[in-house]
Amino acid sequence: MKTPAPSLRLLIALAFVNFVVGAGAFAPIALLAPLAQKLSLSKAEAGWVMGAYALAYALTSPTLIASTGALRRRTVLLTGIAVFVFANVATAYATNATMLYAARVAAAVGAGVVTPVAAAVAVATASPDQRGKALSIVFTGMTVAQVVGVPGAAMIGYSFGVETAFLVAAGLSALAFVSTALATPGDVPFQPQSLAVLGRTLMSPRHLLAVLVTVTITTSGYLGMTFMGPLAEYRLGMGRDGVALVLAAGGVGGFLGNIVAGRATDRLGPGRALLLCLVGQCVLSPAMTLIPFNLAGGLALNFVWSAFGWGFTVPQQARLMALDANTQGVMLALNAAGIYLGSGIGSSIAGAVYEHWGIEATGVVGGLIAAVGVAHLLYSESFSRISVAREKSL
User: Average pLDDT, stretch 294-322?
Assistant: First the structure.
């Protein structure tokens, strides 16, 4: 019996969930300067604001997805959103670094359940020939968060204070809870995952090498992204407006980069499309911090850099989905965890690099790690081909 197409109402609700999660997750990047000033954070401590969230997401998401694999998807999804609402309220009222880090860890726990389960619901309610379209609609929320949510957080935070920005994020998350509760059926079909499947996947060198490419790429990207706000302030000599415009240009670049990367994946294959994204990061990451720019130059550079940087998500997910049909659910969770693990590592390294060598060095180190990513990708592709050939010969 053919699976009916998911309702547009459901897909829009899931896209909205991803929007609020993306905006709430990355709002600290837009508000890093005022947040650090409010809580008297050092540059290294400021780098850990995103780092705490990212590492917590990476460590908890795959385990939570596997351990809740027998529960109804609607229940798990709504629980994750509720945790995310609470975490944003806690972030708004944090009065020291410890409280702030704890709140961001709670936000990561909620988001680490929401994003993979939203994707799973979209796939489960669509027929095989409609799953790509369903996923593209749901994940549009994440890219729109980069275009609208993060610059919007900068505008609100710089105008009315960081508390207001995170309270708005909590309010939007509460709206997402309501819309998801109304749109998501209670009997979504799904294939239960387990900790055993997760364990077998993590023990497979072929799977682990492939998903760790995500970590390498995002480590490189977040070396530049973490201090994008302070870089805009430093280079442009502007406050709210300059920061918001530069971040918005990056969001638009990321949005269009995903579209172009999708077409490149279809035409060139995921491996080659991903290689192009990495080569772009190698060149553009140092340019972002070394080349003096005015407002127009900053907008153009961040647009192109973000297009290459965020474009990796489409070909990398295509690689992982094609790797093994039996582990696709776990691999999606691991890929999401890899994004946040890499962003946490990158943000933390960025804080240390900024502290010791200045903001210009963050782009240089990011470019060097992107070069490592090229080698990592090529080795992963080669290892996978050899492993598949060996399995077929047995």
Answer: 82
Is the pLDDT reported for residue 193 higher than 70?
no
Reported residue count of the chain is: 394
What is residue 269's predicted lDDT score, i.e. its pLDDT?
A: 83
Higher pLDDT, 177 or 235: 177
The Cβ of residue 53 has, within 10 Å, a number of other Cβ atoms equal to: 30
Give the per-residue pLDDT at 77.
93
**N- to C-terminal Cα separation, the chain:** 36
Query: Could you tell me which residues come within 8 angstroms of residue 217 by beta carbon, excluding any fewer than 6 positions away?
Result: 277, 278, 281, 312, 316, 342, 370, 373
pLDDT bin (cut points 50, 70, 90) of residue 177 is very high
SS3 letters across the chain: CCCCCCCHHHHHHHHHHHHHHHHHHHHHHHCHHHHHHHHCCCHHHHHHHHHHHHHHHHHHHHHHHHHCCCCCHHHHHHHHHHHHHHHHHHHHCCCCHHHHHHHHHHHHHHHHHHHHHHHHHHHHCCCHHHHHHHHHHHHHHHHHHHHHHHHHHHHHHHHHCHHHHHHHHHHHHHHHHHHHHHHCCCCCCCCCCCHHHHHHHHCCHHHHHHHHHHHHHHHHHHHHHCCHHHHHHHHHCCCHHHHHHHHHHHHHHHHHHHHHHHHHHHHHCHHHHHHHHHHHHHHHHHHHHHCCCCHHHHHHHHHHHHHHHHCCHHHHHHHHHHHCHHHHHHHHHHHHHHHHHHHHHHHHHHHHHHHHHCCHHHHHHHHHHHHHHHHHHHHHHHHHHHHHHHHHHC
Domains of the chain: 1-192 (1.20.1250.20), 194-394 (1.20.1250.20)
- Which band of pLDDT confidence, cut at 50, 70 and 90, is reported for residue 1? very low
